[in-house]
Amino acid sequence: MLSRTSFSVSRTRARLSLSSSALPLPAPSLCLRVRPLSLATPRQRSSAMSTFKQEPHKLLVIPGPIEVTDEVLYANAHPSMSHVSADFIPVFGDCIRMLRELLFTQDAQPFIIAGSGTLGWDQVAANLVEPGENALVLNSGYFGDSFSDCLRTYGAKVDEIVAPFGDAVALSDLEAALKQKKYKVVTFTHVDTSTGVLSDAKGIAAAVKKVSPDTLVVADCVCSVASEEIRFDEWGLDIVLTASQKGLGTPPGLSVLVASQKAVKVFETRATPVTSYYGSWKKWLPIMKAYESGSAAYFATPPVNLIYAFNASLRQITKQSPSVEERFRLHRETSARIKKAAEELGLKQLPVKPSVAANGMTACYFPEGLTAADLIPSLVKKDVVVAAGLHKDYKLKYFRIGHMGISAIDSSRGDVDKVIAALKESLAEAKAGKNA
Amino acid sequence: MLSRTSFSVSRTRARLSLSSSALPLPAPSLCLRVRPLSLATPRQRSSAMSTFKQEPHKLLVIPGPIEVTDEVLYANAHPSMSHVSADFIPVFGDCIRMLRELLFTQDAQPFIIAGSGTLGWDQVAANLVEPGENALVLNSGYFGDSFSDCLRTYGAKVDEIVAPFGDAVALSDLEAALKQKKYKVVTFTHVDTSTGVLSDAKGIAAAVKKVSPDTLVVADCVCSVASEEIRFDEWGLDIVLTASQKGLGTPPGLSVLVASQKAVKVFETRATPVTSYYGSWKKWLPIMKAYESGSAAYFATPPVNLIYAFNASLRQITKQSPSVEERFRLHRETSARIKKAAEELGLKQLPVKPSVAANGMTACYFPEGLTAADLIPSLVKKDVVVAAGLHKDYKLKYFRIGHMGISAIDSSRGDVDKVIAALKESLAEAKAGKNA
After folding, report:
1. What CA–CA distances, in Å, run from B160 to A18, A404, B48, B89?
2. How wide is the angle at C-alpha A360 spanned by C-alphas A386 and A112, nearest 5°?
3. Which member of A319, B188, B235, B419 has the lowest number of beta carbons within 10 Å of its beta carbon?
4. Distance CA B138, CA B135 (A)
5. What is the ipTM of this complex?
């Protein structure tokens, strides 16, 4: 029966329940053949794929976005597809499964949402920390500042342990802080993209488990997933949040987060309503579960093409050679090679010691007397695009080289050779110019 | 000087200011030649573009995502680019400028953010409505329910005027409500994708201006931008929010919002802090201004490839033939043709009268005795993908056809012919099957 127009006083109107906001859609199960979800079944490819080559371009070696494969870009150019179609559902479902595999977790819950890595902070702040609860941020650079800002926006009481510039927070300082106060979450930046500082994810998780086992361990792994070793279950992480455009080898536009079942439980038993709408797990959890189980549900239209691209990249990372473990080793080797070359060129790194230096990027001070203007445009002329500094206090003093994904693991591309050669030439030219 | 490790009690640590959170990056201005921003300068194209054809696929005629052009998909497969490079900055800047042109506004402020259309609601709820303020939602379907839910999440006191199923809210009811209470915002769904109901955007804006001129007029135009006529300045709209995958002819993954200067002022003079981080205009406004002015600033990595794709589609819409005005006419004509065909096939539409029926989609009840399972899979076999119902009370009773973008305006594709022919055949087969 059609309802009549009513000017209802709807403050009393009930909130949409979790089940009604995640409407199961009838279309796919009714109308389209169910494709097998097995990862062993390769996606159908036309001959067009084998001929697609991305356009010639400057080598992009910033700490994300990174160079991506032709196959990933071709997947990003997939014809438009219904987000609830039987063809698309397993593409999404397989992303969820492969993400678990990549992070070495059996049962953690992935969330894949249109957004940037930043949205992962909102997810943590709005779903896991209730207003007034304590959060401890281990701050090793720009992204620690920002995570604190985000947590405060949603009402958390934030303490920070700020590492010296170029260093990670000492585990002894973390333990001391945990003994003084009860924290709902401890957050850290696995690799701070602003400085290239690597934090000891395993050690941090162990310290939290030892001193304050109820506290959730939140790892901002935007610049580390698929380039640094991460063992979700073994290390006892509760959140790994990241984005598509770094080690994951996909164009930017996906917020990717994985939550332990402990974290999901904390969310499910929170006392107050979730304080975000777009970032609410109340909305997204049923969607992720639906896609993984082979059906579709609707909250917001997923970024279909990016999911195809993400699927293509995750398939290359988890199903093809080299293996995930081998990838970690290759990232370490590439990093060592670039850092050695930088050292030989007289470039001092931001990280104060090798143990706190990332393996997917390198941050170096400009040599005495040179600035960004002396070096970066010269590298661009040699078709090598590096990144300027980002940390607020030091951004004019250093530059950053990204070496994640295919640039790091596929030596046949010659990306590393090209970077080192260009750096050598540009430095020589810059110094010659200053001396002229 | 390097700071020492400090376990600082940082509740007192100052929030990042607007200017420091949107760090101006030195790289582009320092190192790369500045490209002219003029839209008259076509982007360089390699010969690869002219040979790129998307893979054969079923015709997608759901109310978004829609069929997109080869050029847009090719742009989505752009090689990875730095989000702060001099090459990319004008691509983003031109999107902002073309969006203004498309909506017939001189000075409104666009926001283009990685996300879905849903994120537009968060932007409105978190930036424009302070906790405890009144919002009036004109509810013409599923998306009215959701917008209310979002507004309440951020603390608004929401009243709704719920239209009868298949109808829009009467302007007289709106005026009566505005006379009873002061509202910070009035929201409406221009085209409710769940029902295909079109609201009178111009009339609603005029009624608000007449009765309550301070109230902001918020139009959810997810399913109407570039398919329905919208005149932002002339009608006096304050917010138009949409997404990339409907009339805008781009893959999904962009939240696209345009705010009047009046709305920006309301945001800038709010008394309480913005209640979202990822959706905060405090973060995004300086970013949008930077990209438009030809420099780069960083808050979160923009979805670079999608911005290239969006640029390609906006260029086709605003710079090529047919004109924007002509596109409105072609959408109306296509819509009339499909609705007439549906009527001739005995299909009753959800909208209760032609004046409340959208021009970019058509929602029809299944004929008596037939269900989704009788019709939708049969259409898929004919390579035509339509959408099932979505409105919670009626979703099993109807289906939806999208006719936006190239399917509506490029008759040489034959999409409309194909849809009508398939519909005719599938209905005949279904009825024959029932009678067999």
Report:
1. 20, 50, 52, 41
2. 100
3. A319
4. 10
5. 0.91
